[in-house]
Every structure is written in structure tokens, then in C-alpha cells.
Amino acid sequence: MFFIKQHMNKHEGIIRCISLSMIVIASGLFISIPFLKSAKIEKLNRLESASCMPDLDHLCRTDVKERGWEYIVIHHSATAKGNAARFDQYHKKKKGWEYGLAYHFVIGNGSFSGNGEIEIGNRWKKQIHGAHTANMNCNRVAIGICLVGDFENGGSPSETQFESLVNLVQYLSRKYNIPSSNILEHKHVHQKSTACPGKNFPFAELKTRLLQIASKSSNHKEL
Ligand SMILES: [Zn+2]
Question: In terms of pTM, does the model score above 0.90?
């Protein structure tokens, strides 16, 4: 009898020990889950704010009164490499354009400027019309953004380059109240036949991303 009791006590002890361990593990989970969750959110927030960098308000400031921009036209450079300074020289010397760089913004691919780096053209600083389409009426009211790369015969924009574009287009369209229907690819401006910004440019994805950001920010406003 004593042996049985001792035996049972031993079992009870093991069971108690296991139960206690399970409680400890379970409470550990309860304690650690919120921490894991908040760490994840913090990481996402950091990623979101990192992708919003640089400060576009600061970057897009102008030297003169801003024009009433109505459209955004997206281009590729149709070259594997380049940056704003190189295109500026080309447009001044080869094209003979007084104001140089045809675009307002150039987004680098890591060749002669950073991957995803947004360069600001003189036309933006001075709020001069663009020279990025063959339609002068369009150039007067359309912001020209050029991504370095050949998306017709080469690959597609780099992920970082595309993120910068999403942020820049979202910023500009919100600032100037430009509707989604007025965000165009160069080939949509049908004055001159062009494939720009190329068949590999993910235009539908750009529109989806902009819609997602817009609905997210309107949800935040409702909250
Ligand atoms: Zn173009």
C-alpha cells in the first residue's frame, strides 16, 4: 500500500511538474505574442517610413510659384544607364532645348545615380513646362517623370525604383489633386508614336498601388 501510494505520489509529482511546465509555456506564449506582434508592426512602420524617404515635401520644393499641374506622364529613358545630368546635357546639346532636361524628375537605376534616387530637374525648380511629349498643350500641364532604363527592350524597373515612383506619383497627385485617370504613360499621349515607357513597365501595378494607398489613407481619416 505504502509502495502504491509512493508510486502514485511519484506519478502525481510528474503530472504536476508537466502541468506546471505547460502553464509556464502557455503564459510565456501569452506574454510573448503581444511583443512579437508589436515588434512586427514596428518593423512594418519602419519599412513604410523608410520607403517614404526622402522627405518629398523638402525634395519637391520649388524656387517659384507652383503651376497648376493636371497630369503626370511616365517615361523610361530607353537607355540602360543614365541620370538627370546626362539627359540634361543630351537635351541641351543634341536636341538644342534651351531649358535642357525634358523631364521634371528622373528616378535612377543605380547606374549614374542611386537605385531609386529621385533627381529633381531645373524645370521643376523653376516650374517650367516640360518637353517630354510632342504635345505642347500636354507639356504645359503635365509633370514628366523619367525612370532610367529600357523597359521595352530590356527588363523592368527595379523594385526600389518602382517604390520611389509610387511614392513620388502618390505625393504629386495628392498635392495637385490629379485624378488617377490623368496619370498616364507617355504612349497614352498619342501625338507621336512611341512605346515609352515600354511593354515591361508595370503600369497596372502602379495604378493598383496608388489605389491601395488612397483607400488606406481614407480609412485612416475615417478612424
Ligand atoms: Zn517618353
Answer: no
